[in-house]
Amino acid sequence: MQLSRRRLIVIASITIAILGYTAAGFWLVPMIASSQLQKFASGTLHRQLSLGSVQFNPYTLELRVNELALKETDGSALLGFRQLYIDAELASLWQRRINLADVQLVAPDIKVAIDAAGKLNLANLLPASEPSQKPASAAPVRVRIGQLSVTQGHVVISDLSKGAPYRTELQPLAISLQEFSTDSDHKNAYTISARTTLAEQLELAGEFAVQPLAASGSFAIKQLQLPPLATYAAASLPFEVADGLLSLEGKYTFAAAESPVKAPGWQLTLDKVAGSNFAIAERNAVGSKPALVIPVIDIAGVQVSPVDRKVTIKSAALGSPAIDIRRDSEGVLNLSRLLVQSEVKPAVNIAPPTAELNTAANGSSQQSPAPAPWQLQIIDSRIDSGTVDFTDNVPAAAAHFSLQALSLQIANLGTAGATMHVAGDARVNNESRFTLDGDIKGSPLQASLNVDLDSFTLPALQPYLEQQTQLSLKSGLFSLHGHVDYGQPAAPDNASGGNNGLNFAGDASINNLHSADKLTGTEFVDWKLVAVKGIRISTAADTNQLTRVAIASIVAEQAYGNLVIAANQTINVSQILSPPGMQKAGAAPAAANNKTEQPRKPAANASAKPQITIDSINIVDSAGDFTDHSIEPNFSTGIIELNGSVSGLSSQPASRAKLNLQGKVDRFAPVEIEGEMNMLSANQYSDVRMKFSNMELTTFDPYSGKFAGYNISKGKLSADLHYRIIDRKLDAEHHLRIDNLEFGDKTNSKDAAPIPVKLAVALLKDSDGLIELDLPVSGSLDDPQFRFGPLIWRAFMGLLENVATAPFAALGRLFGGGSELEFVEFEPGQVKLNPVESAKLATLAKALVARPTLKLNIPLNTLIAADSTAMAQQRLLALRPTIADNAGKTAQLAALELEYKNRGGQALVYPASEKDAPPATADVLLDTKIQMLEQALLPLLKPNADELAELGRRRADSVQEILLGNTALKPERVFLVNDESTGSKQGKDAVNVKMALKLE
Question: What predicted TM-score, i.e. pTM, was given to this entire model?
Answer without folding.
Answer: 0.71
